Amino acid sequence: MIQNMELYQVFYITAKAGSLSKAATELFITQPAVTHSIKQLEAKLGGQLFFRTSKGVRLTAEGEVLFTYIEQAYHFILNGERKMAEIQQLTEGEVKIGAGDTLCRHFLLPHLQTFHEAYPQIKIQVTNRTTREIIGLLKEGKIDIGIVNLPITDHQIDVQESMEIHDCFVTGEKFKFLSKSPISLEHLLKHPIISLEQGSSTRTYVDRFVAAQGLVLKPEIELGSVDLLVEFARSGFGVSCVTREFVEAELSDQSLYEIKLQTPIPPRRVGIIKLRSTPLPAAARQIYEMLL
Q: Cα separations (Å) of 50 from 14, 67, 168?
């Protein structure tokens, strides 16, 4: 086990300088301190490392052998410092992000495009999971940050709120008549409802809203993605519950129509999460700040 790295540093600098006085100047210590360090290292290793000449000092045969290894180690350390600098300057590194399909496409992707243009050397890994699974991956150390639908409560997780989003009901031409004026939730639920599968944070949030109105959400069709919700509503299967901000293009070109409720679903927010106890790597810290 290496006991004192400073002794090897003094040895290396002295060997490179060929002079005790020059080594002392470079190391910002006294010449006697250089001499003492070399004697300590010689005593530890059991052999003479330098011999004096009229011009300074030179390595002995044993010193030449040691110098070969110490020089390699010195360059490994320099390379390590350079790599650390590259990581801090975001010329190298990796960021691991967890996000649901919808948030990845509609919220995360534009930020990733900006980040990738600014830092093309950084490797980006995105894992698509539900909010509950993303929290699990974060605690296991498999991702650096997560993009989730709020609300969530977990004392191990640091949660920062980002954009506000609004859940709403949309439909295609077949049920367009429902969009003419605000209607009650009770009246809406008499029509075929299409929603996300149970288990997602979005479905749970909407279920709780419906229950708070004294009603029960009983979808005729349950699907696994917002893209499918859009297609099924547009094709006339019924009324889909989606996030308004993520279907603005369809609402704008009138391939979908929003059904206004007399009591709208309260807005919620997208959350950016990380572990409270773990500092973020440089690349992850940069994109975390961008997302906020």
A: 9, 11, 81
